[in-house]
Amino acid sequence: MSMTLAEKILASHAGMEEVHPGQFVEVSVDVVLANDITAPIAIAEFEKLGLGRVFDAERVVLVADHFAPNKDIQSAGQCALMRRFARAQGLPHHFDVGRMGIEHVLLPERGLVLPGDVVVGADSHTCTYGALGAFATGMGSTDIAVAMATGRIWMRVPETMRIVYHGELQPWVGGKDLILYTIGRIGVDGARYKAIEFGGAVVDALPMAGRFTMANMAVEAGAKAGLFAVDDVTHAYVNGRASRPYRVYQANEDAAYAQVIEVDVGQIEPQVAFPHLPENVRPASQAGDVPIDQVVIGSCTNGRLEDLRVAAEVLRGRRVHPDVRCVIIPGSQQVYLDALRQGLIETFIEAGAAVSTPTCGPCLGGHMGVLAAGERAVSTTNRNFRGRMGHPESEVYLAGPAVAAASAVAGRIAHPRDLRPHARNT
Amino acid sequence: MTITGKAWKYGDHVNTDVIIPARYLNVSDPQELARHCLEDIDPGFAGTVQPGDVIIAGENFGCGSSREHAPLAIKGAGVSCVVARSFARIFYRNAINVGLPILECPAAVDGTEGGHQLEIDLEAGQIRNLTTGQVYQAEPYPPFMMEIIKAGGLVPYIRRQIEAGDLSIR
To answer: Can you tell me the ipTM of this complex?
Structure first.
């Protein structure tokens, strides 16, 4: 029986020889995740089940990242509720301010999610872990409550769409540009209910950070999961981090795909998604004259060390435009420390940027950079829906760290190649 | 179960950020959330929606975040059913899990305007537009999902398994 990567992992976790798209299966889960927004409802539903204990304290992960550090009294209450639950259940993987990270940066970094896992999280960007060759998907709090209690969850086996990238990447083009381009091509529901398998020579050569970025935004095309094959790059990342043994699955060469899409990356330049949908993408050079008020560099999409290095490369020796607030958010305490030791934080502060403790904050209009009416932001985050970063009359333009940093300097959407070499504009 | 109510019609890709903006996610009480339901695309909705009313929408309804606050806000506002051309997958699960009726029926979406009166037989999946007289048949639920719906949501469904002693823990 030939199966795709997603089918292989689900079949194994359902205890079956094979599964078919459309089939309903009950699978065991390796990791269950919730955050300060979604855990309170999950905990309330968990208590209604009346089982008392989580199925395995080692495998339930709670991260205070969305409205943490507490943005107001009600958010403080939500974080406190989650903290009390973690203590009562004796959960070793409850991550609080000062020892945390944005969940989808943190869990891979700590080796808590691994190749071959089934991971369910009460956060839509749980699909990020597909970069490790895991089947990872976002669900709501009630599903997560059931998974926390039983270690099992029902799933409909998705069809798989394979997207193959070949050709040579242009300068300043990274994982974010590839996934934005892809969403622009297939649309925000182009992979609805499907798993995406990313493949081809280009992604084989892509570092883990770029793969995490691409898998992260699979949900922005409607996908249930976005997976990469496990290779040497994956092993090099996982070795030394893995907290337990893991199993590697491979798609069969003759697996049946619902659709195969070929992408020649040679023509792709840095991309920008215009308001108010991630599919509204244009090449940065065709953005036109769009003055901006804020730049955000960070998030579960682009808050890794490699992303900060790209931003620093652009910002080094330059100044953030006087009309722009530039907020840079390392994705975890470790990323922050590494960036500090490598001099990136100094570069950011000298350039006139603000550097924040890890938080999802501005991505969803929570805190640390909420937009006023009429304001525009270029952001390395993942959604640009109306009102996403603040006032319903504000606008979010999604881009990778290179375009975001270049735009911070130029005061308008800019391609990094168009900046004057080390120009000082103040 | 038959419901009747007025239609509120919206377009494609009505996402969870407009169903309930994240700035209100510091609470999870459905009544509190309902006060802000859809306010960024339709500021008049939350204040005037009546119990029993129906949301009609295009493709990919509920795309975006996994927040269960979205179906809870809609349910809290008194909406009896969402009829769309299609639903985003996390929203679909969440709605079933929290007991918000949803139906996929492109023809009913095309044949209904905001303000039309609708009568919906949820069990049969039949949508009757009382304003135009047209009747539409929605996609049936897969049998497995129908069991969750009949139990009243995922938690009661699992509780029943616990009580019957046939729940398996990983």
So the answer is: 0.96
